[in-house]
Each structure stands twice: as structure tokens, then as C-alpha cells.
Amino acid sequence: MPDIQIHTHTGKPIELGKFTIQPISQAVAWINRSWGFVWNRPYALKVEHDGHTRHIPIRDVTQIAFVVMWGLTVVFSLMTLWKAIKDWRTTHD
Amino acid sequence: MTEENKSTFTTSIHNQEEVTRLTERLFEVVQPDTVFSKPKRTGEYTLITASEVVTGLGSGYGFGSYTPPLPEGSLKEDVEIEMEGGTGGGGGGGGMATGRPVAVISVGPDGVTVHPVIDRTKLGIALLSAIGSMFLAINRFNR
Q1: Which of A43, A8, A50, A14 has the alpha carbon at shortest distance from A29?
Q2: What is the spatial distance between Cα A59 and Cα A26, in angstroms, rounded to a whole number?
Q3: Residue B93: count of CB within 10 angstroms of its CB
Q4: What stretch of H or E contains B126?
Q5: Nearest to A45 by CA among B140, B93, B111, B13
Q6: CA B82 to the chain's CA centroid
Q7: What are phi and psi of B119, to 5 degrees?
Q8: Could you tell me if A53 lies within 8 Å of chain B, comparing CB atoms?
Q9: For residue B37, what is the DSSP state?
Q10: What is the domain partition of chain B in residue ranges?
């Protein structure tokens, strides 16, 4: 059985002027003995400034919009299919 | 991403252990360095590109052997004829890797900001599909 793992890694701190940034990435790894798949994406930033630490999430706007649009496509397609089946049954009964 | 990961490489694999070792190299991609670029300074701002990276790898092999059946009614010990058989095997594999910029991080006098990167082509195609399926649904319901 393939093993799916989710790893969250924090990178080395980067000093940029007054700010210290630590990149955080999240990877989904599905690795078997003879095949594997890894999806690694930027997850967040840990920003330190004046002794305060805050997390800034990194959102993949393209991916979110893409999933929403494909979701709508699937919903409309299923509605069309449902209506087509319903119409066919009405004419054949 | 290391120089080694950027390049294409070929390798010969002799057994299952080597296949497993090669597959485990995929974990090298899991590090944050793979998705965050090195900071680049432009004027007052420093920019870091954050990208999504997808990699896949697969390999397989097989082998077999053939021994012809004994002539009918004969015992193995009785057979003096030379039996021709054979063995053979083969394998193959392949992989892919894709990357897509997700956001640009800018660090400047106004602080740290994350600017999303929008792939208009990808979204345009998805939007056309959504609009097309919506019109089909409206057309079907108006019949």
C-alpha cells in the first residue's frame, strides 16, 4: 500500500534589513517502492520584526480559482446530464 | 533547487533496491529551497519567488524464463535430449517535473508583502469550460 506523507518544512532564516524571514513549505509525498509523486508548495512565511513574529500565509490564487471553475463545470455538466436523462425517461414512458 | 536536480540524468538500474533508492531521491524536492528562490535585490526592494513544484517518477521491470515441457510419458531422468529454454528480462522508467510560480514576496520599506501570481491562460481555459457547460445547462433546462 502506498504511503502518503505530508511534510511541513521551515527553511533557514533570511535576514533582509529589519526583517528576518523563514520560508515554510508543505509537501505531499506519495512514494512507493517503484514509483513516487511529490507536490511541494509554498505554505507561509514566518516574519520577525522588532521582536514580533507573524505568519503570512501564501495562497495559491490561481489554484483556488481553477478548482472553483472546474467545480462549476462539473456541477453544470451533471445538471445537464440529469435533465437529459429525465427528459429521455419522460419521452419513453 | 540544486544544480543536480535541475539537470536531466540517466542511470542504469540493476535491482529493486536501486529502484527504491532512486525513488527516495524524490524526497530531495521536499525541501523549502525547492519552492523559494534566492532573494534578488532590485532598488529598495528584495524579491523572492515562491513556486509550486510537482515531480513524479516511476519505474518497473520484469523477467521470466521458459523451460519446455517434458515429452509425454517420459521421466525427467530418462530425457537425454537437450532441452532448450531461456530467460529474459527488461525494464524501464520515466519521470516528470513541473513548476509554476505561485507568489512573489517583496520585502521593502513598507514591510513584507505577498503578491499572488495569477496564471491567466490556465484560468481563461477553465472559465471557458465553466461558461460552456453553463450555457449547455441553460439550453437543456429551457427546452
Answers
A1: A8
A2: 12
A3: 16
A4: helix B120-141
A5: B111
A6: 48
A7: -90, 95
A8: no
A9: P
A10: 3-141
| Enclosing H/E stretch for B33 | helix B32-35
Measure CB to CB from residue A60 to each of B56, B102, B107 and give the nearest one.
B102
* Cβ-defined contact of B137 to A32 (cutoff 8 Å): no
Question: Three cell numbers at B44?
Answer: 529598495
A13-55: per-residue pLDDT in tens?
999 988 999 999 999 988 887 788 899 999 999 999 999 999 9
ipTM of the predicted structure? 0.82
Return the closest-CA partner of residue B52 out of A49, A61, A77: A61
Q: Hey, what's the cell of A88?
A: 429521455
CB burial class (10 A; 0-12, 13-18, 19+) of residue B60?
Answer: exposed
Report the gap between the CA of A53 and the closest CA in chain B (Å).
12
- Closest alpha carbon to A62 in B104, B113, B30, B6: B104
Q: What's the CA angle centered on B10, arms B28 and B23, to 5 degrees?
A: 35
